[in-house]
User: Fold this.
Amino acid sequence: MPDFITIVYLTFMFVALYFFSFFIILTIKNNEKLFSYPKPEKKFSISVLTPAHNEEESIQDTVEHIMALEYPKNKMEVIVLNDGSTDNTSKIVRKLMKRYKNLKLIDNEKNLGKARSLNIGIKKAKGELIAVVDSDSFPSKSSLKKLSGFFSNQNMGAVTSFVRVRNKEKNRLAKIQSIEYLIMGWSRKLLDFIDSVYVTNGPLSLYRKKYILEVGGFDPATVTEDIDITWNMLYHGYKTGMCLDADVSTVAPNNYKVWFKQRMRWGMGGLQAISKYRKMFFRKGMFGAFILPFVSFSIIMSLLTFIFSIYLVFKFLAVRFLTVGYSITTDSAIFKLQEINLYPSVIIFFFDVLFTLSTIYSWYVLNKTKYEQNITTKKFFNILFYTIVYLSVYPIVWFASIYKFARKDLTW
Assistant:
């Protein structure tokens, strides 16, 4: 009879291979449609909202990228939501307003938070569609036009873009996040084919204004308004989508402290969303039947796999320590040649299969998304670092998020 540990480990391997196979099948089935998008049937009026709090270093570049979008200027207004900034953000925007006639500024006297700022902007916006662009993000010229085509479907509530890391050459952390963002974007597109896009990202997403107002706007009580508004749209039966060919670049954290705080906020936001919509488990179409269970189960599996891995490491070290101690006490050989096992166990076999498939698949995704024209040996080792180290330690973020969420401490 296999022992309990072996059963647990094989269960983890089975679940991991099952979901991995699921995404591979989605990739193969939809390979020719991954970068396609519906052509716009009309020119929607669009209001681009950019919330900003002390963003003097990036706000001008962001506004200039928005103004360079290939979309009729008579159909587009741009509103910067200056949320109680104490730097030169407002001054820079006012200067840009002299150059761009369709640029507007809303000045909040105090910091209201991103969600409240967006709700204020939405009420004053004139567009049929609302684009949200973070103040440290830079949409590509054709991105808005490509996103707008999805709204020919009257049930479409929100569509999101493909995010790339702008500062990926800054250091190792930024390079690893660049890989992470591309794989996340790819996976999000695959979920689009089964109506399960559950995050419309902050760097660039497009919403139907009518539906935002209908679902009550962005929730100020959540720490991740982009996750909450997406789940709210899905809860009300509206569609969400993702365009892999609509690029936007953003500035990723380049030090571990800022990175950890950002990811902890993402984690708490995800937990808030699960708690808020928990009654919808296995109800309400794909939202309850797949998205809620999938997100929840992914978190649980990540945590359990981390705990189990730590257990195996400590068990191995404890056994080696006791063995060495016994050998020293009895004056016997610490290492014996016959103890070497040249026959891999089932556990090692499944681990090797999963690791090899993950690496190959990551390489494939990065090539398809043009991570680089040529993936060199150095970049390949970045992929290995992402697969082996980054993903292995990431559950620490989830532990911190769960701890703060349980204490109802939503600061970060």
User: Anything to note?
Assistant: The mean pLDDT is 89. The radius of gyration is 24 Å. Residues 285-330 form the longest helix (46 residues). The beta strands are 46-52, 76-83, 103-108, 129-132, 137-139, 156-165, 205-208, 239-250.
